[in-house]
Amino acid sequence: MKNLYLLICLLFSLSNYSYAQLFCQGNIPVTTVSTNMTGWQARGGLGHPGNTVVTLCGFPPNANIIGLQWANMQYNTIGDSWCNEVQLDLDSELIIYVESGGNHPGPCGPYAGGSPTILSGTGLEMTASATGCIVLQPYLTWLGSPSIGADYTSGILTFTACPQNTPLPVLFKKFDLYAADQYHILDWTTSAEINNRGWEIQRSDKGIVWENIGWIDGTGNSSTEKSYTFTDKDPMAGLNFYRLEQWDFNGAVSHSEIRYLEHRTGGLTIYPNPVKDQLFISGTPENTTFTISDQQGRMILQGSTTEGAIDFAPIRSGSYILHLQQDGQISHHRIVKVE
Predict the structure, then answer these.
(1) pLDDT class for 172, splitting at 50, 70, 90?
(2) Which of 50, 55, 165, 284 is the one with CA 20 to 30 A from 121?
(3) Where are the alpha helices (DSSP H) in the chain?
């Protein structure tokens, strides 16, 4: 393995991302292997005899390790150790580094971070052995006293991997579905693409039999974020199920997660969209309430639609989600504010 180092700061939160189901090239599902960190110890630098050494197996032979997540990771420091002096090694590569200084000594955590795909596209070549194993070891970076160390009290590590020479064709950062007036908008972002020809946009009334309703070209090969949008201008009455069928240039196919949205034909009208000042809503029951949130899910405004309009003038330009609650059901509509 290359002698490279990757600092994965715990400021990277899993809650900011929603991933579609992951497939390696050739429509092969990723392999997921987890281990419990409870009872692990760090007593010195890398290779110290007092450090816990764990051999984690269950990967395909020589598999490409593409992602790492950790949850509820906690440890108690001993002596002169600080939280950010405790690190985790995978086959001589640093894979977890706690950024905050923390306690001296004392409890550290709980920490969570990483993602199923964070290692892909970084330039690291992290692979399992020919027997499908990796070696993990917690260690210390400061060795100023003999009575130092850390004892792990909890933590779950989860690795994702693809077979040798079969990386993920597409890494999804998000895949969202919104209603805009009488249209349905599919909106997705990739963080990396390999040999990606593009997507068939597929729709179904029950999520069983699918029809192709459009095509969006992919980027081919990319290690930067790319955003895509498709508009279904003629959704079916009732529930509409959607998925993305991704095609490689070599003919391999994989599918995204399924999203669904109800299309109502009872006269609900939301206009204009994009909106500058007043957003008018008609065709809703008297008890309908609304909430407007931004793309990060933060509430911007809430109220009732009894007045027939929402004042968007004070809201900054951008893309928002209008949530309408009526008769016990909630519908979601993408609204674009312009100056």
Answers:
(1) confident
(2) 55
(3) none
Whether 120 maps to a domain, the answer reads: yes
Q: What is the pLDDT of residues 75-120, one digit of tens each?
A: 999 888 888 888 888 887 777 877 666 667 888 888 887 766 666 5
Q: What is the CATH number of the domain that holds 151?
A: 2.60.120
Name the token pair of 39.
Answer: 């009872």
Output the six-digit token pair for 38.
């409870």
pLDDT at 28: 81
298, pLDDT greater than 70: yes
- Calculate the alpha carbon distances from 249 to 140, 141, 193, 252 in Å: 46, 46, 12, 7
Average pLDDT score over residue span 64-74: 86
- What is the rounded distance in angstroms from the CA atom of residue 50 to the CA atom of residue 97? 20
d(CA 84, CA 141): 9
Cα(152)–Cα(167) distance, integer angstroms: 32
Q: How many separate domains does the chain show?
A: 3
Determine the residue type at 211: E
More confident residue, 281 or 114: 281
Three-state secondary structure string covering 306-335: CCCEEECCCCCCEEEEEEEEECCEEEEEEE
Q: For residue 175, what are the domain limits? A: 170-263
Confidence of residue 218 (pLDDT cuts 50, 70, 90): very high
The answer to whether residues 103 and 56 belong to one domain is yes
Q: Is residue 195 domain-shared with residue 148, that is, in the same domain?
A: no
Burial 189-200 (b: 16+ CB within 10 A, else e): bbbbbbbbbbbb
Q: Name the nearest CA neighbour of 75 among 44, 39, 115, 101.
A: 39
In angstroms, the CA 278 to CA 311 distance is: 5
Is residue 113 in some structural domain? yes
